[in-house]
Write a structure and sequence with these properties.
The longest helix is centred in the middle third of the chain and has 15 residues. Helix 7 crosses helix 8. Helices cover 18% and strands 39% of the residues. The strands form ten sheets. The chain has an eight-stranded mixed sheet. The protein has a seven-stranded mixed sheet with strand order 5-4-9-2-1-10-12, with no helix packed on it. It is built from eleven helices and 37 strands. The protein has 632 residues and is of the alpha+beta class. It is globular and about 95 Å long.
Length: 632
């Protein structure tokens, strides 16, 4: 009976759909509004035949309205030696449903799927590099992939803006009654019926979703749109069996992957012990050894071994001088073990901040590995793949998110290094003089720390020409800017970056008869491109807060004085604080002080226009002018 069901499902899947179904005129009018493309059908089917045989079927039909919609119609399928493509087909139709072109598997381009930094991977991709010359057109793409691991893909039916959906569905056919956990999010909001993974067959369906226009500061899609993830309690990866039902058990399984990977020789261990023999603290030992790692190794992706999850041993990195995030983290862990410092292999979702679910354990969560070193004096976090990253600094790539730490007793969800608003700072001081012809000359010094350090420290590693280009962009509001000299200081130990510049700006002050006018802030203007949206549909997120303090002294020409008094500005809101003041210090000296605090957080959609207005007011005050009158 099981085989009959499987055969029937394949026959149904490949049964041709009549051309009239692809006529663009059959799309409901409301789905065309703001749509670059309309998904006519997006059917994902997962059939579990055994722990090492899962059939993944994708039947996808999309009508592309204009060139902007081409990005949604990119037929492709990934595979490797253990996951084979058994069927691949793409058919293009014109707006009337007439066939334009048909592609079989042999027509697809086949190449290695190598991403940045990878040297070798068994992953490959088959894709088409084709788009019809006329719009609208419809693509019907079908693929079947035989997976030899117990892999159950997630369902994320909404995955782009300006993309409408006629029908999207997901079917999981659990033929062996495998125990499966699932995590369902945001289904009720879209009238999607919740399913139980205790059933042999579960099914989700979403219909007639209008295209959403792009909304700025949108949180993670998974946090606001329908999302279902699955985890098999028993599984096979590259022929290796495993099982877990929670993070603790999963950590024990991961611990098994690390067995025998710390294989440094006694001589090698003695070398590292000698490196730190004069260190005065464990923190200094970690710093010395991390610097050794950065000087000796580089990141190269080698995606092999138990689904790409098992790290290469420390001896591999020691001999080769390179490795991926798993291998380099394991190498650093082995080095620290050699000098008696405990550290812990930690799996994290890198990129835009995304938490591991505390109540749902799955291998699918996590795409990167870092090292956690809890010392008596403080916690240390190490990014082992970068030769430039500061000591004990994660930055935006992996900061402030739930991650899985592998302890001896098993796995535990912990929070990675966090940079609160008050620590994400830019402190800028400047001393300037405005000459009678309107020219500005002076010095400026800026100190960056926290997440703001992450945004500037790469300048240190750029060439001189690129450094000057970046610095000119920093002060692009200064007309006819000339940077006379500059100095960049990268404090690797403390993750603090300092920029010192001597500069000149021709025509900084505009002369009007006997008077002159100039911008209240010589540098550090805040600008905004945010637009108010009375029809916003989703909350918005300020991912990172910051605290900026600017302090400028500006000497004005003799026989000039400011026209009137500048009233201090104070703006306070739930989003932060803004202060601006200008005071006369005598001797033709003006003192300008400006403070800006922006608070991170997720805010309701109803507050978006308030935030836009707050940023617009800040920009307006930042661009305010001072009028100087000539004293007769």
């Amino acid at each position: 009976m099981k085989n009959l069901l499987t055969i029937f499902s394949i026959i149904a899947f490949f049964y041709p759909i009549s051309a009239q179904d692809f006529n663009v005129s059959s799309i409901r009018e409301e789905l065309m509004e703001n749509a670059y493309a309309v998904i006519r059908k997006d059917e994902i089917s997962v059939e579990i035949q055994s722990l090492n045989k899962v059939i993944l079927t994708h039947d996808f039909v999309i009508t592309v309205m204009n060139k902007a919609g081409d990005k949604f119609a990119q037929p492709h399928a990934q595979y490797d030696p253990d996951n084979k493509i058994s069927f691949l087909e793409a058919i293009y139709y014109d707006e009337n449903g007439k066939t334009i072109k048909k592609f079989k598997s042999k027509d697809f381009i086949d190449q290695s799927y190598i991403t940045d930094g990878q040297m070798y991977t068994e992953n490959r991709v088959k894709y088409l590099n084709y788009s019809p010359v006329q719009y609208p057109y419809t693509l019907h793409f079908k693929s079947v992939i035989n997976l030899s691991s117990t892999s159950i893909v997630s369902w994320n039916p909404i995955w782009g803006h300006n993309l409408a959906i006629e029908n999207s569905s997901y079917t999981l056919n659990n033929l062996i009654n495998l125990k499966i956990h699932s995590k369902e999010l945001n289904l009720k909001e879209y009238n999607i019926e919740s399913q139980s993974t205790a059933q042999p067959v579960i099914h989700y369906e979403l219909k007639n979703v209008k295209a959403m226009e792009r909304e700025e500061l949108l949180p993670l899609y998974r946090d606001i749109f329908p999302n279902v993830e699955f985890s098999a309690l028993e599984f096979v990866r590259d022929g290796v069996k495993g099982s877990f039902s929670n993070w603790e058990e999963m950590g024990k399984w991961y611990k098994g992957l690390l067995v025998s990977t710390n294989d440094l020789t006694p001589t090698q261990k003695a070398y590292f012990q000698d490196l730190v023999k004069d260190a005065r603290s464990d923190k200094e030992k970690v710093s010395i050894l991390y610097k050794h790692l950065q000087n000796k190794t580089r990141y190269v992706g080698v995606q092999l071994g138990i689904g790409g999850l098992k790290p290469f041993p420390a001896s591999y990195v020691e001999s080769k001088g390179y490795g991926d995030c798993k291998a380099l983290t394991n190498y650093m862990k082995s080095i620290l073990d050699a000098v008696g410092i405990k550290s812990y292999y930690t799996i994290v979702q890198a990129g835009k901040r995304e938490d591991f679910y505390t109540d749902f354990a799955s291998i699918a969560q996590g795409n990167h590995v870092i090292l956690y070193v809890p010392l008596a004096e403080e916690d240390i976090w190490l990014e082992t793949t970068s030769q430039q990253t500061a000591f004990n600094y994660l930055g935006r790539f992996t900061d402030d998110r739930n991650a899985l730490c592998i302890f001896p007793e098993g796995g535990k969800i912990i929070r990675t290094q966090k940079f609160p608003t008050e620590k994400n700072t830019e402190n800028t001081k400047g001393n300037f003089e405005i000459l009678p012809d309107g020219k500005l000359k002076g010095t400026i010094s800026s100190i960056y720390s926290g997440i703001q350090y992450d945004m500037v420290y790469p300048i240190k590693f750029a060439g001189t020409k690129e450094q000057k280009r970046i610095l000119n962009n920093f002060y692009e509001n200064l007309p006819n800017l000339t940077i006379l000299k500059y100095n960049l200081d990268n404090n690797w130990d403390e993750a603090v970056f300092t920029v010192n510049i001597d500069l000149e700006s021709q025509q900084f002050a505009k002369i009007f008869g006997e008077n002159m006018m100039f911008n209240i802030l010589p540098a550090g203007h805040s600008t905004t491109n945010l637009k108010k949206d009375d029809n916003r549909r989703h909350p918005f997120e300020i991912s990172y807060g910051n605290t900026d303090d600017f302090d400028f002294e500006i000497k004005i020409p003799v026989n000039y004085k400011p026209e009137g008094n500048f009233e201090p500005v104070l703006l306070e809101s739930e989003f932060g604080l803004y202060q601006l003041s200008v005071t006369s210090q005598g001797n033709n000296m003006l003192k300008v002080k400006r403070k800006l605090i922006i608070k991170n957080g997720i805010y309701p959609k109803e507050k978006f226009n308030d935030y836009v207005e707050f940023r617009r007011k800040i920009s307006s005050f930042d661009n305010a002018k001072i009028l100087l009158e000539k004293i007769n």
